[in-house]
Every structure is written in structure tokens, then in C-alpha cells.
Automatic annotation (TrEMBL):
SUPFAM superfamilies: Cytochromes. This is Cytochrome b562. Gene3D superfamilies: Cytochrome c/b562. It holds the Pfam family Cytochrom_B562. It comes from Pseudoalteromonas rhizosphaerae.
Length: 129
């Protein structure tokens, strides 16, 4: 039994020392869910929980390896974090309605920066940019 437990422990040890690469796609899905929860929140504590999770996930996204437009992507993430922090501040000071403006700006930033990472379309592949 001891041998079995030692073998099981040895199987998990390499995972402790492995490089903690971020699964950006999964992280972005969770980020989207946290954003949706913050937009749909009806109570301040619910909003604060969702926006805090959103901010944490966006900060974690900054550690990802962006293969193209890395500098622009990081700048975009910084802008999103700033808007989310502003939304939280406004919500806590003036109520949830005050946070709607920065939340809309976050959605606009999402659309703008996602275009940097979209795969090329058929016509772009055929004729180039």
C-alpha cells in the first residue's frame, strides 16, 4: 500500500513543477462569464463579487503568450482593467446604474481588441490584406 501511495505521489510531483501555462481560451470564457454576471447583477455585493472575479481573470490573461499584436493586446487588457476598476468605484459610490457606462466601454474594447486575434477570412487568405 505504501508503495502504491508513493507511486501515485510521484505521478503528481512533476505537475507541481511544470510550467503553469495559461489556457487563454478557457480563461477568456470564464472572463466573459464574470463580465456577464457583473452586467446582470442586481445587488451591489453580487456586482462586486463578479467584477472582482472579472478583474482577476483579466489580470491573469496578461500572462498569456500572445503570438501577434502582443503589445497592443496588453495595452487593451490594461484599458479593460482600468474601466472595470472605474465601474466598481462608481457602483460603490453612486449605485449600479453609474457602472453601466464603463461596462459598455469594456464591451467596446473587447470587440476592438478581439479583431487583432481573429483568423484571416477567406478573401484575406486569397488576396492578402
Amino acid at each position: 500500500m505504501k508503495v502504491f501511495l508513493c507511486l501515485v505521489a510521484l505521478l503528481f510531483v512533476p505537475s507541481l513543477f511544470a510550467n503553469d501555462d495559461l489556457d487563454l481560451e478557457a480563461n477568456m470564457k470564464n472572463t466573459g462569464l464574470a463580465f456577464k454576471n457583473s452586467v446582470e447583477a442586481t445587488q451591489l455585493p453580487e456586482f462586486n463579487t463578479a467584477i472582482d472575479e472579472f478583474i482577476t481573470l483579466v489580470k491573469r490573461s496578461k500572462s498569456a503568450n500572445f503570438h501577434k499584436a502582443a503589445e497592443q493586446s496588453l495595452q487593451g487588457l490594461d484599458k479593460v482593467i482600468a474601466k472595470a476598476e472605474l465601474a466598481k468605484k462608481l457602483a460603490n459610490e453612486q449605485g449600479l446604474d453609474a457602472a453601466k457606462g464603463p461596462l459598455k466601454a469594456i464591451d467596446g474594447l473587447r470587440k476592438q481588441y478581439h479583431k487583432l486575434h481573429e483568423p484571416p477570412g477567406f478573401w484575406e487568405l486569397l488576396f492578402g490584406k
